[in-house]
Amino acid sequence: MKECRIVLADDHSILIEGLKFIIEKHPEWKVVGEASNGVKLLALLKKIDCELVILDIAMPEMDGLTALKEIKSLFPHVKVLMLSMLNDYIHFEKAKTLGAAGFLSKDDIGDELPRAIQKVMSGKIYIAPSTNALLAERQLQQMDSTNSQSVEILTRREKQILGLIAGGMTNKKVALDLQISIHTVENHRANLSEKLGSKNVASLVQFAIQKGLI
Predict the structure, then answer these.
(1) Residue 163 covered by a domain
(2) CATH code at 124?
(3) Where a domain ends, among 99, 131, 163?
(4) Which among 22, 55, 108, 134 could disulfide-bond with 128, CB atoms 3.0 to 4.6 Å apart, if both were Cys?
């Protein structure tokens, strides 16, 4: 891997030393600066060149998310790997929206920091395993919440058509079976997709099976 100059920003000196210890095991990586808050970090970045900033979210004077926003505005070429003890969706989503190249929980630093740096510097987005698990759990909760109420927002005819489509019928066969026009079937199918957030037949079938419509 090519040389990577790294700046560390965290208000805990013990963590800074721990990060340096891991990074210095890789001769192609070099820590070129340290800052204890966002204000000092921005001032430092105006004086030195670096490819990567490893940035803590929770810092005094200027927090990491505010600093991230400024970095992407003033130094768009610099990649930012966010560190956080707050392994939650809100901070992750905010960091992603502001342009972070990676999100690493402090609990994962020992095992994951080298992989995170490698992935970020190769142009990919890095998400820590614990954060990935959190996101997957949130997605499942959202799906459960949506599915629990979705069937209630369908009309009797929509449920009927959904059951037939899930049973393998084409629009033409559904129209013949129900003695309605193909155009009407297509309209109902479009409404089903919109209400259920389903973009293909497979997801409609899965929903129909879960709700006992077939």
Answers:
(1) yes
(2) 3.40.50.2300
(3) 131
(4) 108
In angstroms, the CA 158 to CA 151 distance is 10
Query: Per residue of the chain (214 residues), what is the pLDDT tens digit?
Result: 578 999 999 999 999 999 999 999 999 999 999 999 999 999 999 999 999 999 999 888 899 999 999 999 999 999 999 998 765 667 778 888 899 999 998 888 988 999 999 999 999 989 877 766 555 554 444 444 444 445 566 788 888 888 888 778 888 998 898 899 989 988 888 888 877 777 677 777 777 777 666 5
Domain of residue 54, residue span: 4-131
Residue 161: what residue type? I
Residues 6+ apart with CB under 8 A from 213: 151, 159, 162, 163, 166, 207
Residues 140, 143: Cα–Cα separation, whole Å = 5
CA distance 150 to 161: 15
Task: Name the pTM for this structure.
Answer: 0.63
Domain co-membership, 73 together with 177: no
| Residue where one domain finishes, among candidates 131, 165, 186 | 131
CA–CA gap between residue 186 and residue 10 (Å, rounded)? 56
Whether residue 70 contacts residue 97, with contact meaning beta carbons closer than 8 Å, is answered with no
Q: Do 95 and 74 meet the contact criterion of CB atoms below 8 Å apart? A: no
Specify burial of residue 101 (Cβ count, 10 A radius: 0-12, 13-18, 19+): buried
Q: Are strands 4-9 and 29-35 parallel, antiparallel or unpaired?
A: parallel
